[in-house]
Amino acid sequence: MIKNFRAVILGAPGSGKGTISSRIVRKFEMKHISSGDLLRHNIQLKTPLGLSAQHFMNKGQLVPDEVMIGLILKEIDKCKSGSWLLDGFPRTKKQAEILFDKAPVDSALNLIVPFDVIVDRISKRWIHLPSGRVYNVDFNAPKVPGIDDVTGEKLVQRDDDTPTAVMKRLDVYSKTLGPVIEFYKVKGILEEFTGKTSDEIWPMVFKYLSSRMTPISQDVKI
Ligand code: G5P
Ligand code: MG
């Protein structure tokens, strides 16, 4: 068993990275660091980083490597001792290489979900912006429509979940993630999980992670 387990979770937009990550951190002592949530937090606070990132995100493009690398390494520095799970980073080979130099990764979890399933899901996504909690009107609807279960605050739809931005994000993903997957494959730490639903994928992820880390509870249910 590895004491400080460091993992990245990869997959297309809408493949369920956020959904599976939130299940992982409920079952394993890991800090969830989501690049998209960090960016949206900066946009909400209107920081210079947020304002420049917003321009790329709303068009479905990647935020420049230098910006992302600085942002993520700062977060990793905050939890030097301990396990973490990076969601949405790396997205380019350069990001993967620099991350590996600074903080070697133990596992890269790649979620493989068909694109037609993804497009339908994203149109029904609602999020709680401050926490990054994700809902879907078909899959995990909030108890009260439009309201976060935990805080009672309003849910919103993401600015980059418009049909045009989603198609662009899927296109960018297809063109850029191959070298990242290859990078982890060559390192011998790539683990792939294929399915049409997060409920299908989650037990496989749980089983794999349980072989590397001790779970908080052995029960796969969340
Ligand atoms: P993000 O925020 O990282 P994406 O595009 O990678 O965004 P996204 O959209 O957040 O990924 P996800 O986390 O993989 O998707 O998926 P999710 O939110 O868990 O699930 C999607 C929806 O499906 C939800 O409504 C969920 O409830 C539902 N769902 C889950 N499972 C099921 C199921 O089994 N069935 C059904 N019916 N529904 C389900 O990045 C955003 C932008 O930030 C920038 C880029 O501009 C990017 O486009 N960015 C970066 N740029 C450069 N480098 C980086 N490293 C960057 N990171 C972010
Ligand atoms: Mg996400």
From TrEMBL:
Pfam families: ADK (PF00406), ADK_lid (PF05191). AMP binds at S35, R40, Q61, L62, V63, G88, F89, P90, R91, Q95, R158, R169. GO terms for molecular function: AMP kinase activity; ATP binding; GTP binding; nucleoside triphosphate adenylate kinase activity. Residues 124-161 are annotated as: LID. It comes from the Eukaryota. InterPro entries: Adenyl_kin_sub, Adenylat/UMP-CMP_kin, Adenylat_kinase_CS, Adenylate_kinase_lid-dom, AK3/Ak4_mitochondrial, P-loop_NTPase. Keywords: GTP-binding, Kinase, Mitochondrion, Nucleotide-binding, Transferase. It catalyses: a ribonucleoside 5'-triphosphate + AMP = a ribonucleoside 5'-diphosphate + ADP. It is found in: Mitochondrion matrix. Involved in maintaining the homeostasis of cellular nucleotides by catalyzing the interconversion of nucleoside phosphates. Has GTP:AMP phosphotransferase and ITP:AMP phosphotransferase activities. Belongs to the adenylate kinase family. AK3 subfamily. This is GTP:AMP phosphotransferase, mitochondrial. It comes from Apolygus lucorum.
